[in-house]
Inverse folding.
């Protein structure tokens, strides 16, 4: 079962031209390094993020962006520093997704103006969804991603493609979208794996074997325990671990603590133990 209805009237959305995007590529990838996931609006979080020069990339949920534009009349440029890269994402709770149509999501993104957006999330579950339901959810996500990319062609925001699922046939459903959009950089949402690191690495092996991305932004895993074992394609890691490591959750944000933690973690990004050549061809059929 999909939690979003793509059949709403989306044909009336007009493309809005706001100038070309300045990609600011780092090492050939749209995003690299530590990405600080922020829960805003929040005075203390904003103060920490804006004042700390070592925080260069932030990620916030589409729900946070909606609150900022609707209730506070803020944009990515007014709420964060001009030199910071801002990413919005729809990888949020299912209850939020149920109430979010594509048109509303597009309107929020256009008004907020992030550098990058991860669009049209559809949850895919192991036990509670049949193979057909998994296929439908991934297909909806890919169709939504292409729909967004088309409507943001002349906008300052660039769409990031999210690889969905965990089996090879899941990832094969994402391949055509990558080809149509001409991208080889992917996002992978890993929060649900919790401590199951070996399982996550196996699924990443499947993803890389099928889609062969140049780089991956992983959401929800920032521990050195994971990143030191992760494939070298993992070049960016988003999460909220920075709040504890910098002291924000206790005595207040310490920029030196944050910088030291970030430096340590980024040493493992893109330099994991696994190599692409070590992955064999993995074939698992839809019902296998």
């Amino acid at each position: 079962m999909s939690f979003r209805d793509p059949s709403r009237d989306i044909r009336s959305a007009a493309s809005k031209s706001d100038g070309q995007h300045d990609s600011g590529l780092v090492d050939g990838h749209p995003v690299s390094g530590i990405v600080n996931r922020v829960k805003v609006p929040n005075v203390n979080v904003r103060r920490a993020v804006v004042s700390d020069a070592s925080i260069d990339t932030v990620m916030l949920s589409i729900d946070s962006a909606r609150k900022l534009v609707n209730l506070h009349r803020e944009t990515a440029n007014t709420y964060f520093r001009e030199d910071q890269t801002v990413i919005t994402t729809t990888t949020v709770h299912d209850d939020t997704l149920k109430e979010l149509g594509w048109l509303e999501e597009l309107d929020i993104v256009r008004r907020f103006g992030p550098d990058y957006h991860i669009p049209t999330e559809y949850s895919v579950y192991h036990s509670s969804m049949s193979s057909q339901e998994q296929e439908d959810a991934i297909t909806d996500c890919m169709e939504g991603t292409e729909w967004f990319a088309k409507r943001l062609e002349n906008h300052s925001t660039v769409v990031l493609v999210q690889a969905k699922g965990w089996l090879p046939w899941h990832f094969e459903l994402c391949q055509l979208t990558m080809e149509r959009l001409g991208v080889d950089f992917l996002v992978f949402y890993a929060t649900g794996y919790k401590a199951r690191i070996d399982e996550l690495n196996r699924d990443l092996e499947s993803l890389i074997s099928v889609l062969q991305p140049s780089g991956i932004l992983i959401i929800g895993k920032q521990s050195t325990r994971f990143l030191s074992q992760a494939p070298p394609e993992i070049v960016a890691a988003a999460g909220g671990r920075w709040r504890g490591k910098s002291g924000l959750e206790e005595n207040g944000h310490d920029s030196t603590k944050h910088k030291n933690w970030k430096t340590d973690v980024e040493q493992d990004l893109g330099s994991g133990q696994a190599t692409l050549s070590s992955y064999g061809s993995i074939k698992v059929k839809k019902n296998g």
